[in-house]
Design a protein that fits this description.
The structure holds three protein chains of three kinds. By secondary structure, chain A is α+β, with helices and mostly antiparallel strands. Chain A has 16 helices and twelve strands. In chain B, about 20% of the residues lie in helices and about 20% in strands. The chains are: A alpha+beta, B alpha+beta, C alpha/beta.
């Protein structure tokens, strides 16, 4: 089958800078089977309609993580008693992006209950300030790295402050988050090395988080983790400690990886479309629609995986039960059936139902943060960078195919206003 | 009391058949959208003209594009 | 058919359907004079808030003007109803004696509240119906005055919404309906029972299997309602919520097939005359249009749904502008109702359902989707605070998928669903 290697080619780092032609080829078959050596195969949905339908299909499960399996240590006590218990605990308390209702709904509701409009509004104002400070630090520079200088520190500071993680502990999270984010890359789940490293990382971050939660119980602050640790959820229940740890880790990891890509992809896209950069500079009120178009055009999360609980007839094929699904959000976002002239970056499109944040039950929890952080960053960059030019186009990319974004984005400038 | 805003009020309606209570409008324009209970959206159908940017944020952010806005002064 | 001279269009009705139809006609290139006739003195406004946040006082009655596309260049004839249609002369006669000539006509006159059967009692101060903006403003004023009790007659969607609003305002409320539960005719008593439980928990005094026989006044004002079983309910405000009747009286003598149930249309949306022949100059849309629904084997239905008024109006507007849509109008019926802070939504039509299953969620948690079946096919679904599963149900209904649907779902392991009786009358 000619299409059999397309998914492999998407994962191939050499196609990272421009996977869109591969997506276009996949769209010719709305739902295609990609040979992965298994009987059920991996099924890729690549059109807007099929992705939107599968995201909202009750027969499609998010429970895609293989069972926890910590590496053996050689110590029989650990390997025979401690390990199975810890593995079982990890399995029973996965982060809620890998869970289904009703558990998913309960945990998500607890988070949303803390994700108040006041907190979010407070962080909106705060992120304008943070962006200003970060750019002030580069005054006099003739070149910036948009990733290291702005796109990374902004969301990380926001999520740490929102959750009440001490800023000085953040460097630890940098490596932890990078490691754990590989869980969204399909191949990593079958790689023993990566999984062993993920287990070690998870245990380290979980131990840190358990201590932090204790601290939040002793000395509650006005932050989300204190709220989750101490307040009852809307249904009157309290989130158990293991679920609380997994939830906090999820939020911190998600807050690290995704918005970085949105901001970096945003600046890259603006530098490739200087007219749009100029229009944003002249009219900052264009920022919301511009960010929305970015989420369509260069979504930070290119695809998500799922699994089927029953056979699903769709678009002329039947996905068998137990199949791995890849929902190619970024391909659906370039579907001409929904978005005329889809490869054109056009913030003035209307009625854009993009898939950049996924959809249905698992719609991105942090979407409001991502939106205003990107708005703040791009508006300030447009206003303050003097004569910005890309040093390398395409820039170097990080390895992830699902969480796709430049590793660095060097921009030559004449100064910062 | 906020001072009277310049210009006519905006006109807003939400297609609640489409709405799935993603709540993005409530974060974008907290003074004009609110979810009661789990899914019951309340919105201000006539926000002042000074809410223009917030309402625009809410409109574009709606994942199901259920928000319709008319700006009589536009 | 390319117009040889400037053609004139008239839209009778000035609600949601009228506005969306006018937009669709302009978008499709109709550039001739376009008149809009409305019996109320207002430009198109949104009705759903009238039974909710207008009554709570959060939304002023005059704040609900509908957003529309600018630059439509409409000639408004407001505050004057259409009195008569003369198809031979191609004129709409208004109640003030004027006549508007048309080459293309849209009938979008909607409905009015079904009045209390005794006209004298119906006009009594303290007795209200709820349909238009003025009705809502008057009822809001009455509720804000803090009546000792409100009696709501009829437990359809509007009646239930009003009862919940009364409770949110701290007003004692009694809801009277001859059925076994609220909404029994639309949702059946199985799902209606859940809505009833919500109302009861909210403190609404429920009287099911009961009927109001007459309304008593003292000094000209309502003081109590008498039920047929002799019970008396002391109440200073009565809200008559007995559904709606279609505004078709002005079509009497036009030769069109119309009655209080609507005006008949063909699959395209053109109205039919008494012999069943379409009039190519006239279309109908919204609550007033009775049309064969392709999804339900061409059964004639007239739908009082917000989304339907929009979608059918766009269809009819294009049709009248000469941009005939490729397929007959076949939008999936959808509606919502806000019962206090609980959202009830529906797709499809429950008529004739012989089975219902809780497909997702949990009745006890008041968060579920009920899927309705008829003769082994999925025909409708109702969600209570569970809207994100509704699109999947709409796909099942559109595909006429077998009922009960096979396959698992993420929130339950059991592959078989409990099949319940829907409890439809």
């Amino acid at each position: 089958m000619a299409d059999a290697t397309l998914l492999d080619r998407i994962k191939d780092p050499s196609n990272r800078a421009d996977p869109y032609p591969l997506y276009a080829r996949l769209r010719r078959t709305p739902v295609s089977r990609q040979d992965d050596g298994s009987e059920a195969g991996t099924w890729v949905a690549a059109t807007h309609g099929t992705i939107a339908s599968l995201l909202a299909d009750p027969r499609v499960s998010s429970d895609t993580l293989p069972p926890a399996d910590r590496p053996r240590t050689g110590n029989p006590l650990t390997d025979l008693i401690v390990k199975p218990i810890r593995d079982r605990i990890t399995d029973a308390h996965r982060p809620f992006i890998f869970r289904d209702p009703p558990d998913h709904d309960r945990l998500r509701a607890a988070v949303m209950n803390q994700f108040t409009r006041e907190r979010v509004q407070g962080m909106r104002d705060r992120s304008d300030r943070l962006v200003a400070d970060l750019l002030d630090r580069k005054r006099g520079a003739r070149e910036i790295d948009a990733v290291d200088d702005l796109a990374y520190p902004l969301p990380v500071t926001v999520i740490c402050e929102l959750f009440g993680v001490p800023r000085e502990d953040e460097p630890k999270f940098h490596d932890w988050a990078t490691q754990l984010a590989t869980a969204l890359e399909p191949d990593s789940l079958s790689d023993t090395e990566i999984r062993a490293e993920n287990s070690r990382t998870f245990d380290a971050i979980a131990a840190y988080m358990a201590d932090l939660i204790k601290e939040k119980r002793k000395h509650p602050q006005d932050d989300m983790l204190s709220g989750l640790a101490n307040d009852a959820a809307p249904d009157g229940t309290r989130v158990g400690d293991y679920d609380l740890i997994a939830t906090a880790i999820l939020m911190l990891v998600a807050g690290h990886e995704t918005t970085v890509n949105l901001i970096t992809n945003g600046l890259l896209t603006l530098l490739r479309h200087p007219d749009e950069l100029e229009r944003l500079r002249a009219d900052p009120a264009r920022a919301p629609r511009l960010v929305e178009e970015l989420l369509r055009y260069e979504p930070p999360v290119q695809f998500r995986t799922r699994t089927t609980l029953s056979p699903i007839p769709i678009a002329g094929v039947t996905i068998p039960e137990g199949a791995d699904l890849v929902l190619l959000l970024a391909a659906g976002n370039r579907d001409a059936a929904v978005f005329p002239d889809p490869d054109r970056f056009d913030p003035d499109r209307t009625g854009t139902r993009h898939l950049g944040f996924g959809g249905s039950l698992h719609y991105c929890v942090g979407a409001p943060l991502a939106r205003f952080e990107a708005e703040a960053a791009l508006t300030a960059l447009a206003r303050r960078l003097k004569n910005p030019r890309l040093v390398a186009d395409p820039p170097p990319y990080r390895p992830g195919a699902a969480l796709r974004g430049p590793e660095h984005l060097r921009v030559a400038i004449d100064g910062i206003a | 009391m906020s001072p009277p805003s310049a210009g006519s009020p905006l006109r807003v309606s939400v297609d609640l058949n489409l709405c799935q209570a993603y709540g993005q409008c409530c974060y974008a324009a907290p003074r004009h959208f609110r979810i009661d209970g789990r899914e019951a959206l309340f919105y201000d159908p006539a926000p002042g003209a000074d809410a223009r940017v917030a309402i625009e944020r809410a409109r574009v952010a709606c994942p199901v594009q259920a928000i319709r806005v008319e700006d009589p002064d536009a | 058919m390319a117009p040889s001279r400037t053609e004139r269009a008239v839209i009778v009705g000035a609600g949601l359907a009228a506005l969306r139809a006018a937009e669709a006609m302009r978008a499709a290139g109709f550039s001739g004079p376009l008149a809009v006739v409305g019996d109320e003195p207002y430009r198109p406004y949104d009705r759903p808030p009238l039974s909710k946040h207008v009554l709570t006082g959060e939304t002023p009655p005059d704040a609900t003007a509908l957003p529309g596309r600018p630059g439509l260049a409409l000639d408004w004839h407001l505050g004057v109803p259409a009195a008569r249609l003369d198809r031979t002369a191609q004129e709409v006669h208004l109640a003030d004696g004027r006549a508007l000539p048309y080459d293309r006509l849209l009938i979008a006159t909607g409905t009015r509240a079904r009045p209390w059967p005794n006209p004298h009692e119906g006009r009594m101060p303290g007795v209200f119906t709820l349909r238009g903006r003025d009705d809502a403003a008057a009822l809001r004023a009455a509720l804000a005055a803090g009546p000792r009790r409100v009696v709501v007659i009829g437990a359809g969607f509007i009646g239930c919404e009003v009862a919940r609003v009364c409770r949110s305002l701290g007003l004692p409320a009694t809801l009277v309906d001859p059925g076994p539960t609220p909404l029994a005719r639309v949702l059946g008593s199985t799902v209606g029972g859940v809505v009833g439980a919500l109302l009861r928990e909210d403190g609404v005094d429920l009287r099911f299997g009961a009927q109001v026989e007459w309304l008593e006044d003292e000094g000209g004002r309502l003081v109590r309602a008498h039920l047929t079983d002799g019970t008396r309910i002391e109440a200073e405000v009565a809200v008559v919520a007995l559904g709606a009747v279609r505004n078709t009286a002005w079509l009497t003598g036009s030769g069109l097939s119309a009655d209080p149930g609507g005006v008949d249309c063909d699959a395209d949306g053109h109205v039919l005359d008494a012999d069943g022949r379409p009039d190519p100059r006239i279309a109908a849309a919204g609550d007033v249009a009775r049309f064969p629904h392709p999804l339900y084997d061409g059964r004639r239905v007239a739908l009082e749904h917000w989304g339907h008024a929009e979608a059918q109006a766009v269809h009819a507007g294009r049709l009248l502008a000469g941009d005939r849509p490729d397929a007959p109008y076949s939008a999936m019926p959808t509606f919502w109702s806000m019962q206090g802070d609980v959202m009830v939504k529906s797709v499809g039509l429950t008529d004739g359902a012989d089975a219902v299953a809780i497909a997702y969620g949990d009745l006890a948690a008041r968060r579920f989707v009920a899927l309705y079946g008829r003769a082994g096919r999925c025909i409708a679904a109702v969600s209570v605070d569970c809207a994100r599963w509704l699109p999947a149900c709409a796909e099942l209904i559109a595909a006429r998928a077998p009922f009960p649907p096979d396959g698992a779902a993420v929130d339950r392991n059991a592959r078989s669903l409990d099949i319940l009786a829907p409890g439809l009358p």
